[in-house]
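fold-stage: in
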Amino acid sequence: MVTIFVLLILGIALVELIKGLSANGTPPFLQKFSWQMDLAYFMWSNIVLFRCLFAVAILVSFFLIPSNARLFALLISIPFFALWAGIYWLFNRYWVGRFKFLPITQKVFSTAKDNQIDLDAQVVGVDHNGEQKAFPAQMLFYHHQIPDEVGGQAILATYCGMCRAGRVYNRMVEGHALDLTLVGAISFNAVFRDQVTGTWWRQETGEAAKGPWKGKWLEDISFEQMSLDNWLQKHPKSTVLQYDPTFAQKYNFFSKLLNYEVSLPGWHRQETPPLVIGVEVNGQSHAFDFEELKKARLAHAALGGQNIVAMTDAENTSAFVYECALGKEVLNFSLKDGLYADDKSNSNWNHLGRCVSGKLKGKQLNAVQSYQQFLRAWITFHPDTSFHHF
């Protein structure tokens, strides 16, 4: 009976370990399986029941031990109880999203004149209903999600460090503004839990993957990722979210992560993972290797019945994707003195999609929603994607 007593203690420790690893620190070979979400949601939803059942079983087994052997059983169980306590603390009080990545405590938006954020910093910019706001990527990287309002619309700006990808969503569902906390990472992607309904949402797609609202999708809000300098050139009246002083050191560290100046240990990390610029047009997905695009500076593609062009700025900090159509004309571009010349009028365009000289001066190309992220994340959620051949 002493053996059964000890095995039950090991059992509850194993259950806590499975629950923790199912969504935090999951080995890569598990991240590749679709059932990881099923396992994680099952364990997180039933962990209290498991704890109660094991607690009752441990108590019953203890009292079934002969009285003269109970002290011995308690003594040999100490390291096993310590093991369970350590696993419990690690995955419930430390290595878990809501404690490791705390929510923002204050939001201050400044104009370009008063901005204190480095102009080289990457931002997730939103232009909605005549209002523009920029959210520094290193802030989103740490917090994973920042709720806000742009142009009268409640939004959720998100970022997943494992995907190295931003997404922006309409925060309203069924008339309610979502209140989300970070669960962890599943399928190499951040997962949030709705505090009201307990629904689990994928950061990459906005899908309600598990819970009462399963099958619902968050509405996409258009955004662009680029350097703050580029964003302010394009939207000089935009406001910029400033650092929350509570987390200044965290932001500086995550800025270094974004620039590959430091790395974190972990099963999900790879050496210099490849980045792609992904687009989806009329249900078809396409990806440009970001390093190759930087070398070429531009690339044309036909996707979903639409002609598009991908460009970079001269500093190769940002990528931009546009429709090639201007009215009924379909334009093709070539590099010319650091700008992009079209084949119809030989007018010159900059990387922001504006014609700066020539017959078409003042015209603006329509932006195509694009995503800068790790290749592994793009193909996980876009398995039928095509790749550009440079």
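fold-stage: in (second)
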Amino acid sequence: MSVPQTLPAALRAAAEAYAARPAIVEGPATVTFAELHDLVRDTARGYLAHGLRAGGRVCVWGPNSVAWVVAALAAHYAGGTLVPINSRYTAHEAAEIVDRTGAQLVVVDDGFLGRTQIADLRSASVLESVREIVDLGRLDHTRAIGADIKVAEVEQRADAVSPDDVADILFTSGTTGRPKGVVTAHRQTIAAAEVWGRTGRVTADDRYLVISPFFHSYGYKVGIVTALLTGCTLYPVATFDPGACLRLIERERITMVPGAPTIFQSLLDHPDFPTTDTSSLRFANTGAANVPVALVERMQRELSFELVLTAFGMTECCVATMCRPGDPDEVVATTCGRAVDGVEARIADGSGELLLRGPMVMQGYLDDPAATAEAIDADGWLHTGDVGVLDDDGYLRITDRLKDMYICGGFNVYPAEVEQALARLDGVADVAVVGVPDERLGEVGKAFVVRRDPGLTAEAVIAFARERIANFKAPRSVEFVGVLPRNLSGKVLKHELRSNS
């Protein structure tokens, strides 16, 4: 069966192929694929009634939920472009995204985390482009408004969407500087979900716990869109609570838990883990610039996953590399896999930077041709900013971010290598390393450690490092912290650590 090349076509195909099967389960509520299609179509009619034009942008600001899925897919079905907004953003941050994209509609989960998002948004900006602010909790009201719009009119909008039309604009996680809007077409979003689902052998029998936020490509593209293509059932998580997730895994017989490394660390370290039945788990996928090898080994050894695959992707190229079923455990634990179908990967001479090329690479950054030209060279290679190596079989190992490297006494130090070593020390729950100024050596390493064992000392951390890595790489100082600052994608905010050093 051919893969649909637009998101409205994918939704229609799913509603036909998996009509009565559960698409999304949220608490006691279950929505089938046929019901999801009806909800999306009727919400899209409401968008038209609110004045959304073809190609118009729809911001969705809220946590993972059935309503988020409906609101997002309705943007596509009405011929518009989806702009997800980080659910933890302040109103000022959200308003900046609305204004930068010229959004015509803003769909807001008013009251999430006890906040007053709609009132705050209106006070933060005049929102000149916005025709309507829609309460995510009252989409039934939007559907009622859309009742006067003929079904044929919204179906024509859906029919008119082409594979090359812009499906979404996702903003980079903004670990440093101003987030950039990544522009992606329908065919690109579909391609990412298709290759990920195929590699992970996802089927309609899978029950998929979606912890990654929908505003991120990991939750949206390899979450929601994968479900449309495969018929698997989504269990959205609004806020991550490892104990609640463990109970859900046991009760609902969850089979899939993709997520950032910190998610698996939290599940494994939770006091309820040893007594939780996780035997239903089939497939785990994790990825980041650097995944602790020790963590992958624990996932393979202590969790009951039949298939653990590491991967590498970024907002600018959602799925770039993945391990494959059948890869040896050591390969899975120590690499990010090899390039997926349709993607080329190579390492730049001199800098060691990972370069990617292929149809899944973004179209560019929103309204920023200079940044686009800096990221994508004349030959079509995306410069990722990550330093890595490729082995003879094409398997990728990320060694660090270019900007995180520091020079100690004339030697390049990649913090990720130091972090990998320290992650093996008993008593270390989490660790991040940054370079800090030093009069004699230029820069030296400082380790920020979250302790599992309160008796762990800084001297023990440094001594452990010096036994395993070269002296110039070992941190010179250690600071114990309760938690590392991370964004919702799981990336450590190292600029915050540096600024506090």
